[in-house]
Predict the structure.
Amino acid sequence: MELTAKGVRVHYEQMGEAGKNVLLLHGWGCSVQHFQPIARDLAKDYRVTVMDFPAHGASGRPPEPWGVPEFGLCTKDLMEQLGIAPCDIIAHSFGGRVALWLAANEPRLVNRLVLTGGAGLKKPPTEEQKKRGEEYKKKKETLLNLTKLPLVGGMAQKSLKALQEKYGSPDYNALDDEMKKTFVKVVNQDLTPLLPSVKASTLLIWGENDTETPLWMARKMEQEIKDAGLVIFEGDDHFAYLHQWQRFVTVVRAFLT
């Protein structure tokens, strides 16, 4: 099924006809498919909605580079059009950024919140990271200036692309030039200041060995969100919710009930 939210065509699926409304928000580079086993199980007791974020899955692309607030407003639009607000939200990784933004800025939309491997917090960079960042900026500035020169512009453009691939993350490098602008806006926003504004009861489910969103992020959220609790899946990683989906559903169902 599809609708237009914040000017973008958004694909969504719904299952289950009884019980409270539950919205599932996937991670960056993922889609509704990554929540299928969980959605099917929860649909036995809840009315479940799963959406593809813009530029993901079967949804359309944003008309311009978006940050977390734009993705949040798009999600809000979808929730209101479908009549599922307020609802419980279960979010993974990038979906956690959107869920945190909604819970802090649109609290009337969110009943309870489940974050698993939720992104959005930035750790102060190490000296090595600062040095690497400054090195990248200097090289990038030099190459950008060279791209304007007729004789070496083409070669400089190729070198610039190689530089971005060297310093960029795999998620960044997998994107086209337009979506890279969106990615940069998203990852550069630190949502830490929003945590005290989250009033929804929050369950944090984390993989012990998560390297994408390390465990310190979960502990920081547990500390800063007024009503939050943390469950750790020992020995698992960023996709612990999917690897152990039956255990995940059991814990979530107990929390939502």
DSSP finds ten helices and eight strands in the chain. The first helix runs from residue 36 to 42.
